[in-house]
Amino acid sequence: MYKVLLVDDEPKIIQGLQRLVDWEDYGMEVVGTVQSAAEAMAIMEGRTIHVLITDIKMPEVDGLQLIQWTKSFNRLIKCVILSGHADFPLVKEAAMLGIENYLLKPVNREELSDTLIGIHWKIESDLSEQTQLRSDAVILRNNIINRWLVNRIRRQELEQRADLLNIKFDSPSIIVSLIKVLYKDSDTDRDRDLIQYAAENICSELATWAVIVCDPYGYIVCIFPGESEDTTIQIRSVLKDCSEAIAAYLKRDVFITVGTREKELHDVHLSYKRALYLMDYSLVLPTNTIMDDSEQSPLKNIIPINIDYNRLQSCLINGNGSGVLSFIEETLSELSRAGGVSPSLVQNVTIEIAHHLLSYTHKIDPDHAFQIKNQGSLVAELQQQKNMDEIKLWLRSLAQTALQAAHLRDEDRNPIIKRMLDYVDRHYMENISLKTISNAFNVNAAYMGQQFIKAMNDTFSNYLNIKRIEKAKELITTTDLPLQEIAIRVGYHNQSYFNNMFKKHTGGYPTKYKITARSLHST
């Protein structure tokens, strides 16, 4: 609600104005009513007022003087003059001060209404302009900092931008820390954006001596100047405060890493690179951990793990679905229980299991609709999993793919199912459903649905969504198309629904999948 202050030395006029219109209808509320300019000044010194409606003639300080005083420190305030008679010299003087209207008493309801509508539009326009200016400045600042973090800005340009970035170039060293907010599966894209924004603000308020920015991976980057060797202790303390504040106010856990101390400001990319590397430990360490590069490595007590991949292969060949799922559960549970397990070991074991599953799938049915095209897309999907539980779910999904391929191999497909699968291959990008296909085939929709579940061990709608998401992953990896265009090309005309479906079937949102896939391709 925009705040309105009414000023008139006649109480009846003020009372009449309050009752004349429903202020809430205009997005406004009357927060003050006074009978003198001095009282109005006292209120405006203590709070923000968006609209000032004042009598032009008052004892001691008149309305014009009040407006002039107000505009001296709040140029965006909208002012309206009230007068008992038309005084054109005063009207001219008021217009030069930038008033919105000059209303004669008694005030006409329609004229006041039209004036408030115009004022509301102008306030919205002013705020939008101010927001855009701030947004442009933030974008410029973030762009410079992110170029600095990856060593893509010349030292001379960086030094010229020091004031904008609020960086002290006389600092003896510099340290980069990363904060990863661990979202809930139920968080929508908008939820994540708001949580990220709030978490950044929390870090900015607590780490006042650091440069704060969000990087392309969605991590909150804190760049700390190192004044002394004691800085690491201070950094850990403020990061702990950030973690506790995010948990208290946003109800989200975090994982935090601290990179190397670098003596040269231009070597900040080395500290950032180390902090990124340590972020992989979020797979194997508890939430709200602060992983500091200066600490002793947690890998000193590595326990050897023997994994019987032949057992997995045997279960696949024999169509032992429960055996495959048990193998995945037991292997990852053993990794979780083992001491000193590195993220790279977890990733290598996971990729090895995934490779066995998909090799088997390709061998028995090269054209299977759910096959993943290459090793790179496997790694991209794996990197979107936040912890061991999510890795288990992802591997179980791949196992279901392999087992489903075996099921299709061993069972003579119903001719209707073959036609349905072929129809989906040709029309998945269109608005299709069981009903549209049943009309095209002149077959009962309920019967088709039952036959599909029996043959495919899956519902038609889920099969269609998986098909579309696989096509979307292929387009993300192999083209430069915007995500909105990709969503439309694979049959989703609602971007939010596409994002949620992508997250459901891959474990991560398309934006992060695109960043990960491109970074893997560039390396």
UniProtKB/TrEMBL annotation:
<dbReference type="InterPro" id="IPR001789">
    <property type="entry name" value="Sig_transdc_resp-reg_receiver"/>
</dbReference>
<dbReference type="InterPro" id="IPR041522">
    <property type="entry name" value="CdaR_GGDEF"/>
</dbReference>
<dbReference type="GO" id="GO:0043565">
    <property type="term" value="F:sequence-specific DNA binding"/>
</dbReference>
<feature type="domain" description="HTH araC/xylS-type">
    <location>
        <begin position="418"/>
        <end position="516"/>
    </location>
</feature>
<dbReference type="InterPro" id="IPR011006">
    <property type="entry name" value="CheY-like_superfamily"/>
</dbReference>
<dbReference type="InterPro" id="IPR009057">
    <property type="entry name" value="Homeodomain-like_sf"/>
</dbReference>
<dbReference type="InterPro" id="IPR018060">
    <property type="entry name" value="HTH_AraC"/>
</dbReference>
<keyword id="KW-0805">Transcription regulation</keyword>
<keyword id="KW-0804">Transcription</keyword>
<dbReference type="InterPro" id="IPR020449">
    <property type="entry name" value="Tscrpt_reg_AraC-type_HTH"/>
</dbReference>
<keyword id="KW-0597">Phosphoprotein</keyword>
<dbReference type="Pfam" id="PF17853">
    <property type="entry name" value="GGDEF_2"/>
</dbReference>
<keyword id="KW-0238">DNA-binding</keyword>
<dbReference type="GO" id="GO:0003700">
    <property type="term" value="F:DNA-binding transcription factor activity"/>
</dbReference>
<feature type="modified residue" description="4-aspartylphosphate">
    <location>
        <position position="55"/>
    </location>
</feature>
<dbReference type="Pfam" id="PF12833">
    <property type="entry name" value="HTH_18"/>
</dbReference>
<dbReference type="GO" id="GO:0000160">
    <property type="term" value="P:phosphorelay signal transduction system"/>
</dbReference>
<feature type="domain" description="Response regulatory">
    <location>
        <begin position="3"/>
        <end position="120"/>
    </location>
</feature>
<protein>
    <submittedName>
        <fullName>DNA-binding response regulator</fullName>
    </submittedName>
</protein>
<dbReference type="Pfam" id="PF00072">
    <property type="entry name" value="Response_reg"/>
</dbReference>
